[in-house]
Amino acid sequence: MYYLIVFSVILSFLNAFLPSIAKWVARAIGSYKPNSSLQIEIDEIKGRMNEISIKDEFAKYTKLQRLLNKKREKLKAEVQMKKKTHLKLKLGIQYSSQAILTFVCLVLFWTQRSTPVIILSENWLRPFGSILSWPTHIPGALSLPLWFLVSNTVAKIASLPFA
């Protein structure tokens, strides 16, 4: 009976912190490093452009400027590709783990639907006793769906500063 309290709280907090966990795992798996050789080439081109006078060697300067623009566009495209891959990885981890957690919760609800999480005095739950004990129908009992709803709400509120 008390294992349901602990297990549902763990599931609730996992569910609440899942986006943060998925972001952290995606960063660990697909660490982002821009193409350093391309950045070195861009720096070299900038250095050569600084050595050249625009007025004296305009054709050479514009040729280097076009080359620099091409390299920057290539670097920008690589960065965008890496960002897209990182986003796909993060969302894949988040949605697959969300599906697993949902399945575990559904199985838990189905198998433990008639088991009360905790039994209190019937007087403590006087006007709402039948609602709080549904589907167990034991007087003074708190059901798993209600307890999960409460713990999930607390977990979501607790995860707000980390979102």
Automatic annotation (TrEMBL):
It is a multi-pass membrane protein. It comes from the Eukaryota. Keywords: Endoplasmic reticulum, Membrane, Transmembrane, Transmembrane helix. This is Guided entry of tail-anchored proteins factor 1. One of its GO terms (cellular component) is GET complex. The keyword Cell cycle does not apply. GO terms for biological process: tail-anchored membrane protein insertion into ER membrane. GO terms for molecular function: protein-membrane adaptor activity. InterPro entries: Get1, Helix_hairpin_bin_sf. It holds the Pfam family CHD5. Belongs to the WRB/GET1 family. It is found in: Endoplasmic reticulum membrane. PANTHER family: GUIDED ENTRY OF TAIL-ANCHORED PROTEINS FACTOR 1, TAIL-ANCHORED PROTEIN INSERTION RECEPTOR WRB. Its main location: endoplasmic reticulum. The lineage of its organism: Eukaryota, Metazoa, Ecdysozoa, Arthropoda, Hexapoda. The chain crosses the membrane at residues 6-26, 91-111, 131-150.
